[in-house]
């Protein structure tokens, strides 16, 4: 009998083969009936199929074929690429005519979903039918970058700290609302805040929303995610959630699983969770995603620990140097939405330029370290909570590795980051897209085909926004300083 797809192309390691058998035992023991095979798309959203357990068993050998059609769409499902031209509009061979691709389960990620009956989830990698990795898949891009780190004898450790909004659904009827169309999002849900007043870490605010947070928290813990905290963030209805450290790919998977879990469980309890940066709701403030990272060797020893009189080790300093050197071009990966650039204002606790600082929250790269402290690391504060976890972490890992290998210096550490005489970060998605388009580093690291693809995708988003602004130039109609276009585009999607 001929070998099935996964064996034929050598796509599972011995550890994955063992994990596959273990997942089948869990299915039998817990009476699992449905397995959701999921993969992160270009926007960081999880897509996939709900398979019966028999179909999952078959996918562990042969993969499961799906259409690549979701890769044609920008966030509003505008069809950016014409799949029926000879090359599909891509600069990548083999994508003409909208071919099928294979979902290949990564069985080590098999997770029983505690808020659903007899249902589990497993992350997948995407492959072309000839066995090549699908070149537009963000999870594959992250794996490629982490493999380059491993080749250099290093691993990336990451901790996730993400802000988001919890609101109460006012109605769930679809009568009398727009259901949307390609390029036109549906009407976002009508919601109300769940708390009032600005505060920070106020226990009464946290307790006020605990009945809704509790099932989300229980689900995250039941799935084994390394949850550290739920915090009362500054603005009303704003929550911050933090996780303990994980290796790079596991951190990205956990961030994606956290977001989808939070949205699904909140919805099942009559609430709405959004990771949009700044919703068009009066009084709401910008959400950010602070990405904590360090570099360890293959034995797990932290290579960024400083000596006396140092902010970081020499390797850590060069890691920061690479991040700053590539920070402008990385903006599409760290802040992929039009709305996300509303964070980038001076004296707003979000960075507006390429700086680093010792325990300074105004800097783009905040150093959290002490001589001999094995927890020494850096926090990249530039990210939008809607960022694609795989591309955000991949961009950080690639830039940091480049800094290490080429000994890039970050310049003097800043005591006043908002006044530092250093290059500014892009102030709009349009500016960030142009920077990425012309950037040789990420073209080499992620491939011309992927960069061309993402640039084209994001220009569609920018152009639709620009056309809306031209037709609606009166900013006095904005709510919370945010246009209706942004709220409709991102509030429900992210």
Architecture overview:
The mean pLDDT is 92. The chain is built from 14 helices and 16 strands. The N and C termini lie far apart (45 Å). The chain is globular, with a radius of gyration of 22 Å. Helix content is 33%, strand content 19%. With 494 residues, the chain is of the alpha+beta class. The chain has helices at 5-8, 14-30, 53-62, 138-151, 203-208, 210-222, 248-268, 314-325, 331-334, 389-405, 429-437, 440-446, 448-471, 484-490, and strands spanning 34-40, 46-52, 64-67, 100-105, 111-112, 119-127, 154-169, 191-193, 227-232, 238-243, 246-247, 271-274, 289-297, 356-358, 365-368, 377-383.
Short description:
The chain has helices at 5-8, 14-30, 53-62, 138-151, 203-208, 210-222, 248-268, 314-325, 331-334, 389-405, 429-437, 440-446, 448-471, 484-490; strands at 34-40, 46-52, 64-67, 100-105, 111-112, 119-127, 154-169, 191-193, 227-232, 238-243, 246-247, 271-274, 289-297, 356-358, 365-368, 377-383. The chain is an alpha+beta fold. α4 (138-151) packs parallel to α10.
Query: Helical segment tally?
Result: 14
Class computed from helices, strands and strand pairing: alpha+beta
Strand content: 15-25%
Radius of gyration: 22 Å
Mean pLDDT score? 92
Task: Please give the alpha-carbon distance between the first and last residues.
Answer: 45 Å
The shape is globular
Low-confidence segments, ≥5 residues, pLDDT <50? none
Q: What is the helix fraction of residues, given as a range?
A: 25-40%
Would you count the extended β strands for me? 16
Order of helices and strands: HHEEHEEEEHEEHHEEEHEEHHEEEHHHHH
Largest beta-sheet characterization:
10 strands, mixed
């Amino acid at each position: 009998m001929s070998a099935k797809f996964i064996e034929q192309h050598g796509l599972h390691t011995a550890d994955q083969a063992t994990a596959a058998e273990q997942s089948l035992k869990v299915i039998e023991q817990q009476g699992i009936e449905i397995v959701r095979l999921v993969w992160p798309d270009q926007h960081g959203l999880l897509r996939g199929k709900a398979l019966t357990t028999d179909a999952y068993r078959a996918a562990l050998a042969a993969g499961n074929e799906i259409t690549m059609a979701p890769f044609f769409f920008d966030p509003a499902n505008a069809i950016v690429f014409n799949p029926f031209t000879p090359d599909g509009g891509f600069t990548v061979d083999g994508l003409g005519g909208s071919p099928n691709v294979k979902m290949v389960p990564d069985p080590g990620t098999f997770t029983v979903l505690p808020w659903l009956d007899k249902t589990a989830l497993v992350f997948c990698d995407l492959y072309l039918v000839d066995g090549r990795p699908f070149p537009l898949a963000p999870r594959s891009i992250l794996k490629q970058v982490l493999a380059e780190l491993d080749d250099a004898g290093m691993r990336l450790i990451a901790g996730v700290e993400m802000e988001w909004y919890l609101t109460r659904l006012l109605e769930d009827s679809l009568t009398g609302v727009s259901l949307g169309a390609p390029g036109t999002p549906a009407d976002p849900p009508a919601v109300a805040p769940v708390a009032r007043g600005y505060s920070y870490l106020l226990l009464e605010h946290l307790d006020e929303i605990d009945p809704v947070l509790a099932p989300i928290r229980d689900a995250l813990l039941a799935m084994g995610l390394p949850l550290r905290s739920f915090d009362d963030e500054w603005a009303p209805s704003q929550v911050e959630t933090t996780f303990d450290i994980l290796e790079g790919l596991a951190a990205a998977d956990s961030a994606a699983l956290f977001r989808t879990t939070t949205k699904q469980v909140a919805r099942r309890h009559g609430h709405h969770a959004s990771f949009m940066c700044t919703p068009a709701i009066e009084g709401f403030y910008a959400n950010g995603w602070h990405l904590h990272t360090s570099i360890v060797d293959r034995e797990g020893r932290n290579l960024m620990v400083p000596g006396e009189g140092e902010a970081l080790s020499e390797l850590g300093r060069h890691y920061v140097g690479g991040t700053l050197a590539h920070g402008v071009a990385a903006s599409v990966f760290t802040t992929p939405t039009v709305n996300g650039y509303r964070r980038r204002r001076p004296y707003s606790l979000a960075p507006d330029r390429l700086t680093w600082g010792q325990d300074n929250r105004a800097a783009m790269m905040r150093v959290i370290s002490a001589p001999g402290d094995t927890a020494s690391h850096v926090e990249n504060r530039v990210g939008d909570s809607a960022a694609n976890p795989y591309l955000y972490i991949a961009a950080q890992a690639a830039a940091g590795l480049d800094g290490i290998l080429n000994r890039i210096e970050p310049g003097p550490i800043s005591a006043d980051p908002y006044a530092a005489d250093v290059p500014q970060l892009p102030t709009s998605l349009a500016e960030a897209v142009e920077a990425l388009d012309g950037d040789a580093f990420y073209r080499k690291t992620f491939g011309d085909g992927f960069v061309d693809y993402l640039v084209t995708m994001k220009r569609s988003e920018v152009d639709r926004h620009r056309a809306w602004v031209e037709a609606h130039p009166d900013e006095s109609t904005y709510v919370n300083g945010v246009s209706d276009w942004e709220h409709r585009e991102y509030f429900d999607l992210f």
